[in-house]
Amino acid sequence: MNYSVLLVAAGKGAAEGESYEKAIASFDDSKSVLGKTISIFQRDENCRQIVIVTSAADMQKFVQTTGSGKIVYVKGGKTRTDSVKIGLMAISEDVVLIHDGVRPWLTQSLIDKLIHRMGTEKACVLAIEPRAAVHRVVNGYIVETVDTSTLMVSQTPQAFNTSFIINCYNKARNIDHEFTDDASVVRALSVK
């Protein structure tokens, strides 16, 4: 099944009090974090389009460090939610994977599992069980240890039928909430 990927790559990180651009930070082999993420999808023959959503200020840097090919660059919005909505308008395939551009450790096996599930689902999310203890905290004090047996930690990419996720974002625009991921947009609308 063919798909497009939307890479959200406009964030900044903080290390030792300094601001840096996570997506263009480099590994020892001089390849940027974003470049490594892009290469995962460039190698996949089913990925027909890579849409990179970034700030206008960073766009030229990304073009210089990532090349082109099946890549489309889109100027993002003020928030991640805004950026994803804008990026979705550039998607050409019926299935879209939405992925954080600074997560380069994705395997082809995980992509294949998502794409396989999209043959029967409108949405599919990668998730892992929490490995650490989780506590509820009030005023800096632990008040409860949370039972994690029914919890999952969602990851990216998250896969969607393109028209379905666009419809969900359109319906969610009247909700005054900054969504933490794209699956939460679907959940906020009580859509399964």
Task: Based on the model shown, name its key terms.
single chain; 192 residues; Spore Coat Polysaccharide Biosynthesis Protein SpsA, Chain A
How would you describe this structure to a colleague?
Helix 5 (162-172) packs across helix 6 (182-188). Strand 2 and strand 3 form a beta hairpin. This protein has helices at 33-42, 56-66, 80-88, 108-117, 162-172, 182-188; strands spanning 3-8, 12-15, 18-21, 47-54, 71-75, 95-100, 123-128, 134-138, 141-146, 153-161. With 192 residues, it is an alpha/beta fold. Mean pLDDT is 85; it is low at 13-20. It has one domain (3-127, 154-188): Spore Coat Polysaccharide Biosynthesis Protein SpsA, Chain A. The chain contains six helices and ten strands; from the N terminus they run E-E-E-H-E-H-E-H-E-H-E-E-E-E-H-H.
Measured as a percent range, the helix fraction is 25-40%
Total of helices: 6
Order of helices and strands: EEEHEHEHEHEEEEHH
The proportion of strand residues reads 25-35%
CATH superfamily: Spore Coat Polysaccharide Biosynthesis Protein SpsA, Chain A
Tell me the CATH topology. Answer: Spore Coat Polysaccharide Biosynthesis Protein SpsA, Chain A
Instruction: Work out the number of β strands.
Output: 10
Terminal Cα span: 22 Å
